[in-house]
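Newbie here. two chains, one complex. Structure please?
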Amino acid sequence: MDLPNIETYLRPTNLQAVKTWSPGWSWLAGGTWLFSEPQPHLKVLVDLEKLNWSEIEVTPEGLAIGATCKMEKLLNFSYPESWTSVKALQSAVHHLASFKVTNMATVGGNICLALPVSNFAPVMVALEAIYEIINPTSQSYRVDAIEFQTGAQQTILQPGEVLRKISIPLPNLEWLVNFKRIAITTAGYAASIVVTAYHPQSSQVRFGLGACVPAPRLIKFSSIPTSAELSEALLSEISLSEFIEDDKASASYRRQVTQILMQRSLEEILCQTL
Amino acid sequence: MSDSLNFQVNEQTYTESISPGTSLLSLLRNLGWYGVHRVCESGDCGACTVWVDDKPIHSCIYPAMRIEEKSVTTIEGLATDGKLSPMQSAFLEKQGFQCGFCTPGVIMSAEKVNCKSETEIRSALRGNLCRCTGYQAIIESILLGRKAEPCEVRDQVLHGHEAKGQVGESIAKQDGIEIVTGKPVYTADYTPAGLLHLKVLRSPHPHARIRKIRTDKAKAIPGVHAIFTHEDVPRIPYTTAGHADPQPDPLDHYLLDNKVRFVGDRVAAVVAETVAIAEQACQLIEVDYEILPHIIDPEQAMERNAVVIHDEPESCQIPERDRNIAGKVILEKGNIEQGFAAADLIIENTYNLPAVQHVHLEPHISTSWLDEDGTLVIRSSTQVPFHCQTLLSKIFDLPKDKIRVFKAKIGGGFGNKQEILTEDLCAFVTLKTGRPVQWEFTRTEEFTATNSRHAMKIQLKTGVKLDGTIVAQDMAAISNTGAYGNHATTVVYLTGCFPLGLYRCANQKFVGHAVYTNTMPAGAFRGYGATQGSFAVESQLDEIAQRLNIDPLELRLKNIISADDVLTLGSKGDDHFHVVGSYGIVECFDKVSQALGYISGMQPIVNGHLRRGFGFAVGMQASGLAKIHTACVKISLKTDGKFELRTGSIDVGTGSDTTLRQIAAQVLGVSIADIELIAGDTQTTPYDSGSYASATIYISGQAVNLAAQKLRDKILELAAQILRSPQLIIADNKVKSPTAEISLLEIAQQAENLSAESEYAADKCSMTFAVQGVEVEVDTETGHIKVLRSIQAIDIGKAINPRICEGQAIGGMIMGLGYALSEELRIDEQGKILNPRLRTYQLPTALDVPAMQVFLVEKADPNGPFGAKGIGEIGANCTAPAIANAIAHATGIRLTQLPMTPERVWRHLKRSLFSIRE
């Protein structure tokens, strides 16, 4: 929709050109969310497109995804064959929205928006991704994915800070993965998202949970959990009050379906290994 | 600040200054590319899909500032060298549209869908919403379009006309070419010079008196022309409901009022050079409110000492304003006490039905201006131009002939455009400023400031004998009509009248109350109260069948009205305006149960945590409104030998314009191409009550039939003189005697002004019946419901155009599917709507829709044209109860509240004996 309050649209070609940062400013990555809601508090949009941060690279350390990498690029990139976990990224794209949205929407934009229903946040958490952030003095620092989102539409980013890059360490790319999402209708908001990663050699299991909680959570097992262990871990690690309770679904329902999705997701992965 | 950017659209080069917050959608529409449609403006519906450098995107969420040095293709750029693209041709061939508002976006998406299987295509279409078709015809079009060849536009037109298009033929909708090529045919696609834009400041409070409004800051913004408040408008009470006189609704609404009655109510109107300026001005208006206590629960609103929502003395026709009662209906036959005394089993339940929204893709919009001779002209997306004209004439004290209301092509209405919501203020501002004015609702306004289906609480008590004979039915409905009483009485009347009237029970009683609350008004919506009542009655009968161990279909057939029955519930004395008419219910039951493979006594199928079951429901809806719904038609033979059909009727997007032409073509012995149609214009067409109550074919169609017959008789009379033969037939554009013939062209040239008129109001309205069966799968661990198959048989009388009838039935089923499983306007304690966006409202997408099948059972009706009955509404009524009954069959649990969300299903399962993993 039109954003009539926007007074200035900046298209910097390097970050140093953005010298000041004031209230009412916002980064624009793909724009697919910013233009989907009224933004009466915003006056300046800083479009990141011309910074050319849209790379997707295989590096000795693993996979590097530039913050403004368009989601659809994740679908068509040719990854090393052994990188089985990439499927989780691709599922996140498929389940996010129409292909016309993912043609424009960016991976970094989705992560920084930090909606509880973000498809990418639980994937990044399950794959223990690392985020590179640039601060207003052009210095960069790294943070674990699990530390990044602190609540619904809340992150550790300070005003003027920006996500530059997402790195997924090499060992984590060779896990088996499964992406599950439950919503009333296909295009509706999810009540829960479960991303399961399983390492066949070590039998480690990690669950990245999203949509059911305000910020993504990680539940880890050093070996394949039984159904009872899985339920117990969910109950003990996330209290009922931490689940989202709103007009779309109750906390207890979200916990119920999260547990069911965890079980089904793990079962599906283990079937794959048979 | 604006920057000048260079870009291309459909190979034309532009250099434009763009204001920085503009979306590509607005940029393209401002440049005149009207095939790009504005619907949701949030990237959810896909109606604005275009390609940027060949990549499909939603232009509503694409920053226009990014378009520099890029190239855009819109639907208008798809057909090249006069050839439709294969996909466009396929959409014409398979009729992958109804109203057509979603179509350009669907085609621009379909062109780029890289998948082969139907499931993959359905998945790819998650970003394209269609409210009319139920997606089936769209998927068929895409499957064909992937293989088809480019096609000459001219060929396509001829191809569509291969068949003559007379009664009974599935001729293509005649406006298909303009739909698939994105022609500027909808209301918003015309902008007169000097156009101003109107925006309304809406109330943040559910109930408040306006002490003072300060507009000076807002008026100071450059580009703001005027701001109007309650102090500036005539204080005439009216209803937004488009009804023929005598108005059955309370007159309780004002152009602008000194009181607001729901979050979203009108406060002040701003008129400015652009929508953006008007919006900014709204933000700067300062309002001093005296907050009043508010009430959102209808039962509390009915209490004696409740807050009175309409305490203003000018409002009238309110049955009991002290108890907030906007409408009261009592229907009764026999003696229910005696009936219950004779019952072997009595079951009583309370059913809760939510408010849901129409979500017609084209929003409410009107454009008004003054003609050269001072006539006030309103171009509006309305189902009721004539009622609108009458209303404006009352409000502004203008003679009707100084007001012209007409409609362009309409992008869906479903009842919400049987309301006058934009025309009144547009007209007012044009009269005040002398300038053309446009007011287009945003999607958020559609969800928060138009109308919903009435939320209802229905108590139903039924008594039966052990053999399944129903002996007593007692129903009480409390209908939440919201802040205004439009359609309050008439909707709740149908809640009892049709669902109970369908059964041959001697003792029935219905008490309906429509109650004001401080919530968004409810209004007309496909099904019109019968939808709510059907859920209660059809759910409870299924429960009774289960208790008595009688097959649910058998129980219904045992009690359902027969061909000879007289419908007495809801009629006064001998004045039977509802009649059974043609009767094909039994065949409908047979078709549906056979197609589903249902056998009496079938057990549910259990597969781990999944359970499958079957469910059924039957419904009844009148064809039109007897005695008060009037249609007038004029048909003329033109000098070129073709006919001109003028009708005031309205095609909301269903295809009724095509169907009416088929009727005329049949009677006059020509092909549909020989019938030119002018419709829906108070200045150029004769009166028609409008498109509602499933009336268009039954009443306007009959008017066409009668006028065409009169004209045919005149033509034959003239031809008899010329050919000197009394034995004449009219066919193939000729009048033929056994020995000679004369063409219509020759007749036209010999006779001047050969024309005929008709005025028709049905004395009796025949009932259309529908039977629906579904198979569902319940995930007992998550409560998720998957509808696997949905089959409906409609006792249609005669299908004038079977494909259009099927389209109506399928579209109705999907609307019912959303009502059953996902759609609901949720409100907070202030009555504020919590999910006013497509993303949170949750319409079914192509992937959520099951395989569907429709049977049209044709037994000619004695009252309708060529035996046809109405079909516009009935399709929506049976889906929800059929699904609820199937869930009960699968799991034993009975849900009495819609929508049956996964969480609600799961909670019921948890409470039931049926064990589930927790």
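Moderator note: Residues 75 and 90 of chain A are 6 Å apart (CA to CA). The mean pLDDT of chain A is 96. Thread marked as resolved.
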